[in-house]
Amino acid sequence: MPAVAKPVRSLPTLQKLGTTVNRNLDAQAVAKEWFLVFADAMNSGDHITVASLLVEDAFWRDLLALTWDFHTYEGRDIIQQFIADQLPKFEPSTFRIRNDLTQLYVPYEDIVCIQAFFDFETTVGYASGIFRLVPLADGSWKAHTVFTNLEDLRDFPEKIGALRDHEPYHKEWVESREREHEFLDVEPGVVIVGGGQSGLTVAARLKALGINALVVERNKRIGDNWRNRYATLCTHSIVWHDHFPYMPFPSSWPVYRPAAKLGDWLETYAHSLELNVWTSAEVVSVEPGTQEKKWSVKVERDDGRERIFQVSHVVFALGIGGGLPNIPNIPCQAEFKGRILHSSQHKRATDHLGKKVVVIGACTSAHDICADYVDHGVDVTMVQRSSTYIMSVKEGMPRLTGGLYVENGPPTDIADRINASFPNFFLKLMHQRMVKDLAEADKDILDGLRRVGFKLNLGDEGSGPLQLIWKRGGGFYFDVGASQKIIDGEIKLKSNGSIARFTPHGLLFGDGSTLDAEVVIFATGFAGGRTAYLRLLPNYLHDAVQPIWGLDDEGELHSVAREVGGRGPQAAKVAGLWAMLGNMAVCRFHSKHVALQIKAYEEGIFGERY
User: In whole numbers, what is the pLDDT of the chain averaged over residues?
Assistant: First the structure.
């Protein structure tokens, strides 16, 4: 695509647009009038008319439907070029607006949009879309955001609901299931490295599309990646946000789930959906394959058995940090006479009763661990090296989720599409405003933290936690009580002076101060996810692997739900290697995108990435 300057980003406020809105307008009528012109132009390949229906600084986000890739385009001119290039390839047709999902959307008094869903078809599949219209000074309405998403492949639907197996099963199910699990009769179509939420959701999606996958999990049990963390770990994301595909959490479940309970759920999920997971097994290498397959995957099991699979697709589902602890290289660790742990090695506060404990770090794990120590009467000090974004779950979660993931909220699949329809760089603008409101609501906590010297920030350019999550996978704490313990002095705080080195009895800081400790815990996160991928690949392929997490220039996650070569110059060398990672909501939504792409490759209908 030729280089075209992007417009300056700003919110579509009524003041900027130079207009007002009668809140009693017929939103469905306005949306339908716009949509009829849009649908006719898309049907006929009239990219000029499509562009004329957009405001100058519009966004268009496409997930596979029109690009076989993940793209966010900004600005009417850039979008027009994208549409001109892609409409002839996909020939979108059969546009239908969803009147039941058309409504006035008013996130703030000065931002008023009409939001509507639509469905359409392409040469390869069935797609959905969302548009948001904003009012103009001349009385017309034009689109500020358009979202298009591939839902299903033509001729290859998911075998769920009415398409499930209707035939009675008069065979030995237990024996048959065991043979399937061990791949005694057929080879897997895909090998998935990692059996957490990323790997299991991809396996479930692939199975629904008729592709048999083997999930390889190094732990003894499915869910141990949650069970083996510190005993008090509890999710800080809400239950409605975290449902799994095909099998949502029971309606009786608590809003926040203990890690061990979630681990049990993963095990139940895999068993109920009959996913083929080898536990106590490890993928030790992924190398270019033979037998007309792209990849040769060597799997070793703890009982000594070894198997090499030839497959065309390998999904790396290793988490944001790949399970590799990030431990800062602080000098003189060998001199320290106490114990040094990473947070992934820490289990429970009662292991260190009567000890002086120092926790290095000031984000989620650090707060959880320190609070547990205080609750068990252990002397603990948090060492904060850089500022942290803090919000309370009480005030923050309702604002972050925007009413989408709540009791009696919209169905999860609708909420997911609304959520995905906001481009990340547009959300950043919205969140810059939201964070100011949230900081005012959390004023007592934030002021108390400042009084005791806790260093705070408002996120990337004042945009709160979301950009921190997408860019770093950390840097924040959603407060469930530890902040008050810091304010009250129950959790001691050391936030001035950098750590110079370990001493035999603790830490020495750059300002000359010292801190005694018998146990030091690094709550410093995990290494970059790319590192874990490279461990499994031959050295000569390392340069072909693009960044795994973080945002690209369009605001899309680098490799999530995509091949790890991305748009890099050596992408062909690692074709068929996929990345799936993220929280449960990301995995629920994007696992289907991974499965659709793999299925399209296998059926020979995958086109060219744009």
Answer: 95
Q: Give the SS3 label for residue 470.
A: helix
Q: Nearest-5° angle of CA 367, CA 195, CA 591?
A: 95
The H or E element spanning position 503 is strand 499-503
The two structure tokens encoding residue 65: 């439907």
Q: Give the span between the Cα atoms of 472 and 549, in whole angstroms.
A: 8
Angle of the 197-208 helix axis to the 584-602 helix axis, nearest 10: 40
Amino acid at 302: D
What count of other Cβ atoms lies within 10 Å of the Cβ of residue 442? 19
Tens of pLDDT, residue by residue over 457-501, are: 999 999 999 999 999 889 999 999 999 999 999 999 999 989 999
Please determine, for residue 1, whether its predicted confidence score (pLDDT) is greater than 70.
no
Place of tokens 């999990």: 217
DSSP reduced 3-state for 165: coil
pLDDT for 321 equals 75
The three-class DSSP label of residue 99 is: strand
- Chain-centroid distance of CA 18 in Å reads 37
Q: Which amino acid is at 491?
A: I
Distance of CA 94 to the CA centre of its chain: 31
Backbone angles phi, psi at 212, to 5 degrees: -85, 125
pLDDT recorded at residue 322? 76
Structure tokens at 512: 């000359």
Summarize the chain as % helix, strand, coil (round to 5): 35, 25, 40
Q: Are strands 313-316 and 577-579 parallel, antiparallel or unpaired?
A: parallel
Q: What is the per-residue pLDDT across 400-411, written as a single tens digit (0 to 9) for each?
A: 888 899 999 999
Segments in 155-194 forming alpha helices (H): 173-182
Nearest to 74 by CA among 447, 561, 425, 582: 425
Distance separating alpha carbons of residues 300 and 304, to the nearest angstrom: 7
Q: What does the alpha-carbon distance between residue 598 and residue 121 come to, in Å, rounded to a whole number?
A: 20
pLDDT of residue 555: 96
Helix (H) or strand (E) holding 508: strand 506-509
- CA neighbor of 582 nearest in space, from 199, 236, 274, 203: 199
The residue among 4, 67, 42, 210 whose CA lies nearest residue 119 is 42
pLDDT tens-digit map of 544-562: 999 999 999 999 999 999 9
How many other CB atoms are found less than 10 A from the CB of residue 190?
26
The whole-number average pLDDT for the span 300-309 is 97
In what order do the strands lie in the sheet containing 70-74? 70-74, 54-63, 141-153, 125-135, 111-121, 93-108
Residues whose CB falls within 8 Å of the CB of residue 360, separated by 6 or more in sequence, listed in order: 328, 366, 383, 385, 499, 520, 521, 522, 523, 524
**C-beta of residue 180 within 8 angstroms of C-beta of residue 278:** no
Strand order through the sheet with 356-360: 339-342, 519-522, 356-360, 379-383, 492-494
Under DSSP, is residue 440 helix (H, G, I), strand (E, B) or coil? helix
| Beta strands in 279-395, from DSSP E residues, in sequence order | 281-288, 295-301, 306-311, 313-316, 339-342, 356-360, 379-383, 388-392
Can you tell me whether residue 572 is helix, strand or coil? Answer: helix
Alpha-carbon span 421 to 59, nearest angstrom: 10
> How far are the Cα atoms of 23, 352, 476, 514, 571 from residue 358, in angstroms, in the given order?
56, 11, 19, 12, 44
Element at 502 (helix H, strand E): strand 499-503
Task: Provide the token pair at 23.
Answer: 């809140």
